[in-house]
Amino acid sequence: MSIGARIIGWGVLIFGLLYFFVPLGGLFEFSLKARRGVYSLDAYSRVWADPQFQATFGYSVMMALATIVIGIVIVVPTAFWVRLKMPWARPYVEFMTLLPLVIPAIVIVFGYIRLYNTSSFLPLTGSVLGTNVLLAFGYTVLALPYMYRAVDTGLRTIDVATLTEAAQILGAGWFTILSRIILPNVVPAVLSGAFLTFAIVIGEFTLAALLDRPAFGPYLQRIGANKAYEPFALSVIAFGITWGCLALIQLVSRFSKAAPARF
């Protein structure tokens, strides 16, 4: 590589870093100005002490965990079966998993409200538990593109057919093959999808707001409309959560590169 190309490459990298971090630095700096004339963490302390923050954040964490479990239960067997028995269906499955990226969340949630309102055959919106279940499945739909691609990428790194055939020769059933052979070999990929799902659920607004659930996304919107410095502190916290999830994905990917297939 020539010196000129190297200089251009470093210039583009530095420009991209400045373009990304300078606004975030301004955001963080403004969040420290809650006390007149000095920098302080007053905005952060008020946010952490707010009972609504604790309740909404805890609710979103629980919904994220439920969404991850539902996603694993749905995606891992589907991706495994498509790769093993139905490779011809892979383009159609990939197309279906991409639909949440092109269909707005507001369209999805209005469809849910239309299908599962109190006058429908399955009135999920008529109870708190039913609405929570509906919200969890809605989050699963939004996270489906990321979870499916993470699991499918993990399945590409192992010989699914050989592992399945060997397990069947030893007398293992389908549940045993999935739970004790396939799943342990794609744990890093599942964790990557899980961290992305967690980041999506924590900041999601549309589904939770229109289903009237006490989630973290609507709380961010309410604080932004009524407070001055707390919304910036919450934005920094939300960025930190997202970066933490991305860092965990990188960490898991690094440790999984040298891991042999388990059987």
TrEMBL record:
Segments forming domain ABC transmembrane type-1: 57-252
PROSITE patterns linked: ABC_TM1
Gene Ontology CC: plasma membrane
Pfam families: BPD_transp_1
Bilayer-crossing regions: 7-28, 57-80, 92-115, 127-148, 189-211, 232-253
Keywords: Cell inner membrane, Cell membrane, Membrane, Transmembrane, Transmembrane helix, Transport
Membrane topology category: Multi-pass membrane protein
InterPro entries: MetI-like (IPR000515), MetI-like_sf (IPR035906)
One Gene Ontology term from the biological process aspect of the record: transmembrane transport
Cellular compartments annotated: Cell inner membrane; Cell membrane
Family membership: Belongs to the binding-protein-dependent transport system permease family.
Protein name: Spermidine/putrescine ABC transporter permease
